[in-house]
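Open question from group meeting: does this chain pack into something compact, or does most of it stay loose? Before anyone orders reagents, we agreed to write out a predicted structure and look at it together. Recording both the input and the output here so the notebook holds the full record.
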Amino acid sequence: MEDNLSVRYICEEYNLRIYAALSKKVLQEMITIHNTTPHATIAFGRTLNAALLLASSSIKPHSNDTLSINIRCSGPLKEIVVQVDGKGNVRGFVGNPTVDVELQSDTLNISKALGAGVITVTRDLGLREPYKSVSPIIYGDIARDIAYYLLESEQIPSALLLAVNCNKEGAITRSGGILIQTFPSTPRQVIDVIESKLQSGFSLDKKLEEEKLIKDIIEELIGKEIKELGSLPIQHRCRCTKELLATILESVETQELEDMIQKDHGAHITCGFCRKEYVFTEEELQKIVVKKEKVH
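Structure tokens returned:
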């Protein structure tokens, strides 16, 4: 079975754009880094797949362009961030990876874990300013809320299917997604057929469990053959560097930097995305202080 891949398709007869993502191994690597419990794992995985699909549909393949989804919520999950670039690199984190300790629930309830909040989608296409759009969490269902965002913010009617499953040990067994978008000339009856199948219980999770190819799953859903336009391998890769973190430290108040030097004799900074730790010595922090003083 395919894995760690995003694919673009078109159905010429029905005028449909279709995007697919398979991310089982990538998601497993990410949740291992962040040590997530089931609610965080599933919500994180769904957001990852949604980000992969939106990136495939809106940023240039093999480019440095990026797309990010940031979910800020009042529920115990607190926040989910996923960033994808045009080269298939992904990274992300969950605000509260051990959320199940607070929920104390044996049954999955992502809506309760999220609560109220907003979804911010940011596209950085290398222009002067990134393009941001914000949409509310209405359903507490990441697939439905992203589909709502696409309709309201992008004016694109879409069907979005997200599937993430893990076993009792927390290992990922399935992870993927399908995004179907219409053109203005897409026949209304085609949309009705797809909606009818989805409402009658068509399950991406079950299809992936049967180890069907993603192309076959899509053709079964829309009832027509589709043509592949291109694919892109995906991998977990963070963009953090010590130089980047040094730049961030330059924005810290001088007194706080002085405290790090005098009291802590250095600083240990952990990247929120990949959990890699960077060590800054007293001398390195002092150089940052001197640089700040020269600027001011």
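Observations to bring back to the group:
The two ends are 58 Å apart (CA to CA).
The mean pLDDT is 93.
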